[in-house]
Amino acid sequence: MKFLYFPRRFYYVEIIFNEILFLTGRDKKIINFVWWVENVRFINLSDKLLEIYINHTGLITGVMNLFEVTHFVPKKSMYK
């Protein structure tokens, strides 16, 4: 089992896991939780963040489509 330890970071993270509150800090070793510890506050927002991401992508696509249509000149070649 690999233990991950970051001595330069000094902050406390509260993790609620199976109704137990864990407090982790600089001098406590974190086991297999490092990849999601910093984003644990977004767990309840994951569906909203995905919806916002999809809407943002659609908005960018629509704006770029309108930009291309407004700059389109039928008499001019596409490669010029």
Automatic annotation (TrEMBL):
It is found in: Membrane. Keywords: Chlorophyll, Chromophore, Membrane, Photosynthesis, Photosystem II, Plastid, Transmembrane, Transmembrane helix. The keyword Ribosomal protein does not apply. Its main location: membrane. GO terms for molecular function: chlorophyll binding. Pfam families: PSII. GO terms for biological process: photosynthetic electron transport chain. It is a multi-pass membrane protein. One of its GO terms (cellular component) is photosystem II. The keyword tRNA-binding does not apply. InterPro entries: PS_antenna-like, PS_II_antenna-like_sf. This is Uncharacterized protein.
